[in-house]
Write a structure and sequence with these properties.
Keywords: Oxidoreductase. The protein has twelve helices and twelve strands. The relative contact order is 0.15. It has an eight-stranded parallel beta barrel, surrounded by seven helices. Strands 1-2 form a two-stranded antiparallel sheet. The protein has helices at about 25-35, 50-60, 80-95, 110-125, 140-150, 160-170, 190-200, 210-215, 220-225, 230-235, 240-255, 275-285, and strands at about 5, 5-10, 10-15, 40-45, 65-70, 75, 100-105, 135-140, 155, 175-185, 235-240, 260-265.
Length: about 290
């Protein structure tokens, strides 16, 4: 499980927005702590903080074994040539440790056409015998998943349900990689857990493409309005005790995910998720946690 073109990321990894606005020293300390805890893969987005490939290089340089996954590097800010040059350097400097996750991000024209055109330009560039660039695509709908199957090593999904994972695996087939992000919250009180989860979900329940994704999965307008129904919130954010959270994450693997990137939410401003990451490592990872 967890293999992208020969890279073994393990079955579970960590996903976070937290690094987007950390200073370089803070990123270095946090990623080294994750490596000490036994995590083998770290996923991070590009949403207005650090430039994606530069940040990936910094994290690779700070670690010895960790796989670093751009999830995602947006195609809008960089030309295909710039993306190829940066990713090729990372592949050569840190063999078998970097994964280039590409996504459309904020773009006016049709996302499927934009991604296909971008991939055409990437594929026209030669590698000159350099190490391979492993790439995956952010994908939700059937056509983008098909593109990820046919033009990349696989797909990365974000804020999806276990049923979506089943559908994605069916489209991708048995040989393409499927990495699934899922949010978790260490809170056992249902009212408090759902309150925090709804705050987190506001951007995803107010954007048309996310709403379309949820409606395709069978959720109604009533489910996606008013902050989200309990059913939808509980499906998108796994909350409770660590053992019950782990069991729900394992459902993605049973449904066809090769790898689950776990995003801890509900951490107080100014505090770190390090302790929650450690608890997850003790619960999910096969190897003992080191100090």
């Amino acid at each position: 499980m967890g293999t992208i073109d020969g890279l073994d990321l393990g079955t579970y990894g960590i996903y976070t927005f937290d690094f987007e606005h950390l200073l370089a020293t803070g990123m270095r300390e946090a990623i080294r702590e994750l490596e000490r805890q036994g995590w083998r893969a770290f996923w991070f987005p590009e949403v207005g903080g650090h430039e994606a490939l530069t940040q990936a290089g910094h994290l690779l340089a700070a670690t010895e074994r960790m796989h670093i996954v751009n999830a995602i590097a947006q195609i809008t800010p960089r030309t295909p040539s710039a993306t190829h040059s940066g990713a090729a350097l990372l592949a050569a400097a840190y063999p078998d440790r970097h994964v280039l996750g590409l996504g459309v991000g904020a773009i006016a024209r049709k996302p499927l056409a934009a991604m296909a055109e971008y991939l055409d330009e990437l594929d026209a560039l030669t590698d000159d015998g350099r190490p391979p660039i492993r790439r995956i695509l952010a994908a939700y709908g059937p056509k983008m998943l098909e593109l990820a199957r046919d033009r990349a090593a696989g797909a990365h999904t974000y804020h999806v349900t276990v049923s979506h994972t089943e559908q994605a695996r069916e489209i991708l087939g048995p040989n393409s990689f499927l990495g699934v992000e899922h949010a978790v919250l260490f809170e056992t009180d249902p009212d408090r857990a759902r309150e925090i989860a709804r705050e987190h979900l506001v951007p995803y329940l107010t954007t048309p493409y996310n709403l379309a994704k949820f409606h395709r999965l069978g959720y109604t307008e009533a489910d996606t309005s008013g902050g989200g129904s309990d059913r939808l919130v509980d499906d998108l954010v796994f909350w409770g005790e660590p053992a019950s959270i782990a069991d729900r994450l394992r459902a993605h693997v049973a449904a066809g995910a090769d790898h689950v990137a776990v995003q801890v939410i509900g951490v107080e401003p100014g505090r770190s998720a390090v302790s929650q990451w450690r608890t997850l490592a003790e619960t999910l990872l096969p190897q003992p946690v080191t100090v």
